[in-house]
Prior knowledge:
- By secondary structure, the protein is of the alpha+beta class.
- It folds into two domains: about 1-95, Glutaredoxin, CATH 3.40.30.10; about 105-215, Glutathione S-transferase Yfyf (Class Pi), Chain A, domain 2 (Up-down Bundle).
- The chain is about 55% helix and about 10% strand.
- The chain has helices at about 1-15, 35-40, 55-65, 85-95, 105-125, 135-160, 170-185, 195-205, 210-215, 225-235, and strands at about 25, 50, 75, 80-85, 240-245, 250-255.
- It has a four-stranded mixed beta sheet with strand order 2-1-3-4. The chain has a two-stranded antiparallel ribbon with strand order 5-6.
- β5 (about 240-245) and β6 form a beta hairpin.
- α2 packs parallel to α4, α2 packs across α7 (about 170-185) and α5 (about 105-125) packs parallel to α7 (about 170-185).
- Mean pLDDT is about 90; it is low at about 245-250.
- Bound molecules: glutathione.
Amino acid sequence: xxxxxxxxxxxxxxxxxxxxxxxxxxxxxxxxxxxxxxxxxxxxxxxxxxxxxxxxxxxxxxxxxxxxxxxxxxxxxxxxxxxxxxxxxxxxxxxxxxxxxxxxxxxxxxxxxxxxxxxxxxxxxxxxxxxxxxxxxxxxxxxxxxxxxxxxxxxxxxxxxxxxxxxxxxxxxxxxxxxxxxxxxxxxxxxxxxxxxxxxxxxxxxxxxxxxxxxxxxxxxxxxxxxxxxxxxxxxxxxxxxxxxxxxxxxxxxx
Length: 255
Ligand SMILES: N[C@@H](CCC(=O)N[C@@H](CS)C(=O)NCC(=O)O)C(=O)O
């Protein structure tokens, strides 16, 4: 009842062009929130961030009861406290017209973004590798990127003959692909060497004004984890032991 009332209020405000900016709750880093930032930025939607730096600040939000599973990311939007990264991304993609023109296009977008998520999860968790496994994990990630994932998108662009992965307009699949390309290049700058169409895609999509703005210094895009921020993240979320990569591209966390 209360939720419905909130929604109505938000819709009224939106129709008056007065919708509140979405508010993102997360720690001050990329993590699972970064794709959400990318999607909003690409859609040209301004957002606010409540970034916490300590375990206490995170627990305060848990105690407030605003995190359904006592986890972040959480996005306050349209009268809801939205959680679960996939649910948030799908809601935003649909709301801001980045989710294709029909169910088929939506299914293609899902296939691309789910694969991209497997790759970006590996890269996201890589800094948490056990010290003795870093080299092996990096080699594994680069091998997966260049032999399993990038060939799929290179072929998709060749076969589809459009500027975008799906249909004839920008979608969540494109923002996710560009985000992951840039993450992989941070691991190895020449990672796109064998993928000419991905190189063109990167240049083309980076040139879209909203995205170009997001890529410039001073935007809400976050830097990769450095040694200091790894410690902060470990303390906030109580990562105690470490992570390891299993054979088939699945990440298993041990903590
Ligand atoms: N399935 C959730 C997982 C969220 C998740 O694991 N969040 C981490 C931070 S990135 C967290 O809040 N961990 C604290 C905990 O699980 O207690 C999603 O995709 O959003």
